[in-house]
Specification:
Blueprint: H1 2-5, H2 9-27, E1 33-34, H3 37-42, H4 48-66, E2 74-80, E3 95-104, H5 109-175, H6 181-215, E4 224-225, H7 245-267, E5 272-281, E6 286-295, H8 304-368, H9 374-409
Parallel strand pairs: 1-4
Antiparallel strand pairs: 2-3, 3-5, 5-6
Length: 418
């Protein structure tokens, strides 16, 4: 019996590799492979969120351009002294006037309108930029989630293969009378649990790939990844002395609120219009020019409510700016610390995987030689699978930390600085 159980360790691991990899290799040619994250990032402008951001920015620029338009003139036609009595009977003494009236946007009304539209366009442009980077962050998150789910599935398949292999070894020991029947039952129960975990991991993997296909706007659902993002270490970026994107957005909103306040203040001023026309005297056949000015009198409506509302909006925008300035530095420091800690966590997890692999190798040798029990082998196997899962979680945490930092800095995760 020791000859049966004393298989070379190399052959054991070869068997595990065949069990884990045979099915994926057989299906590799039929699986749809997703482009790399960098390839998908290059197509960011084609994704709905980026298209929406560009459209919003374009609309704001168009409104700013429209704000420069001069008000249209109005054309009027008027006939006087007709269909009356005495000499004004009929149309004999009619006076016909054709005039053109042009509103005059004086008192700074036009400049205030243009300034407000420009400020709104700037704020909208910055918000659109933020939408693009958030879309890039969602893409990176979906890609890393899909890769992590795929790795967890592979680990579950490996755990099942190791559990089945250990169960076979325990069955031989039970047949030889070296282990109790209970140990064989426990081994089969562990195998069944590992098989259920594999099915659960497959469902999670398929859902993650479906979400990636939807977010990346891929033509066909993907089933595997061609390049790794979890193994990509974030590039170091020089500290940008300019304000973070969120602070710049808040500042632009303050400026826009100030411009809207100016518009409301100017709206309370009189509206002035100039007119010029020609009058025709039908009785004598003479012509004469007419000129005129009209001005509104702000007697009842002085737009006081609109001005107060604009003041309140400006104070609210200033409060948001103050809060954003206070939070920006703390958020940046926290994101950098989280990223640094996650990178250290990856290194520690990789070291733990190496130690767990060596422990399982030694436990397997000791079990085959009859020096260790099934419980000790099971414990080292569980530690190995746990260590590998911890390595996946550490890499996923590193990706999330990079996404958070990139969002604060205003750039794409694992991409170039702005």
């Amino acid at each position: 019996m020791p000859m049966l159980l004393g298989r070379p360790l190399r052959a054991v691991w070869l068997g595990v590799a065949i069990l884990v990899c045979a099915s994926p290799l057989a299906m590799a040619q039929t699986r749809e492979v997703a482009p790399s994250y960098q390839s998908l990032l290059a197509r960011l402008e084609q994704m709905p969120a980026a298209i929406e951001a560009a459209a919003l920015s374009e609309a704001a620029d168009a409104r700013a351009q429209q704000a420069r338009a001069i008000a249209n003139p109005s054309l009027s036609w008027e006939t006087e002294n007709i269909q009356g009595s005495g000499p004004y009977r009929g149309f004999g003494n009619a006076e016909t006037t054709v005039s053109v009236t042009q509103p005059l946007e004086l008192f700074g009304q036009r400049s205030a309108r243009i300034g407000a539209a420009r400020a709104d366009a700037l704020a909208t442009g910055l918000r659109s930029e933020q939408m693009r980077w958030r879309a890039a962050g969602r893409l990176a998150q979906a890609y890393s989630d899909a890769e992590a789910a795929s790795r967890r599935y592979d680990l579950a398949a490996e755990a099942l293969a190791l559990s089945e292999q250990d169960a076979r070894a325990v069955a031989l020991l039970v047949e030889a009378g070296r282990e109790a029947t209970l140990r064989g039952i426990q081994a089969r129960s562990e195998t069944d649990a590992a098989r259920a975990q594999l099915e659960e991991a497959r469902a999670v993997r398929d859902a993650a790939f479906a979400r990636l296909s939807a977010i990346a706007m891929l033509d066909a659902p993907v089933e595997t990844l061609g390049a790794s993002l979890l193994d990509t270490a974030p590039a170091s970026h020089a500290l940008d002395a300019s304000d973070p994107l969120a602070v710049r957005i808040a500042q632009a909103e303050v400026d826009a609120a100030g411009q809207r306040l100016t518009v409301e203040q100017r709206r309370a001023r009189p509206d002035l219009s100039a007119s010029m026309g020609m009058r025709r005297f039908r009785e004598t056949g003479d012509d004469a020019f007419t000129i005129g000015l009209s001005v509104s009198v702000p007697l009842f409506d002085r737009n006081r409510g609109g001005v107060r509302a604009a003041y309140a909006d400006q104070r609210a925008a200033e409060a948001r700016l103050t809060a954003q300035q206070q939070e920006a530095r703390a958020d940046r420091l926290a994101a950098e610390a989280t990223l640094s800690a996650s990178m250290a966590r990856v290194r520690a997890a990789d070291s733990g995987v190496g130690a767990a692999e060596e422990a399982y190798r030694m436990a397997r040798v000791g079990f085959d030689a009859g020096r260790l029990s099934q419980l000790e082998l099971r414990s080292t196997r569980a530690s190995l699978i746990s260590a590998r899962n911890a390595a996946v979680e550490a890499r996923l945490a590193r990706v999330r930390a990079e996404i958070d930092l990139a969002g604060l800095e205003g750039r794409a995760p694992f991409g170039e600085s702005r």
